[in-house]
Write a structure and sequence with these properties.
By secondary structure, this protein is α+β, with helices and mostly antiparallel strands. The protein has one domain (2-95). The protein has 3 helices and 5 strands; from the N terminus they run ααββββαβ. The protein has helices at residues 2-6, 9-21, 79-87, and strands spanning 46-52, 58-60, 63-65, 68-73, 91-95. The strands form 2 sheets. Strands 4-1-5 form a 3-stranded antiparallel beta sheet, covered by helices on one side. It is elongated and about 50 Å long.
């Protein structure tokens, strides 16, 4: 931060923040479930299929999982994330392409 201030970058940082504050883009409150349509992942990019069995979804491994299947890219989950999900009876985790 001190380097940013010393280089005069604070002015541009302040301008960037001010510009973002004037934006008309909607802000989604933290914790809101968001479902994206039309963003299907290519089959080759999907590494895991995570299924949440809990009616109202569940928060686990640093993210919110809605009820149902969620395709996840191969590198998005760490070994620790996979262990958490596989150890939770509210989830089923399988490799993509294995039915």
């Amino acid at each position: 931060m001190a380097e940013l201030l010393a280089s005069g970058g604070a002015t541009s940082l302040a301008a960037t923040i001010a510009e973002a504050a004037e934006s008309t883009a909607p802000i989604i409150p933290k914790g809101t479930d968001v479902v994206f349509f039309g963003l299907d992942l290519a089959v080759s990019e999907v590494g895991w299929i995570v299924t949440c069995h809990r009616e109202d979804g569940r928060r686990r491994a640093g993210r919110r999982w809605p009820r149902g299947e969620a395709p996840v890219r191969g590198g998005e989950l760490t070994a620790h994330d996979l262990a958490l999900l596989q150890g939770d009876p509210q989830f089923t985790v399988r490799k993509a392409g294995q039915d």
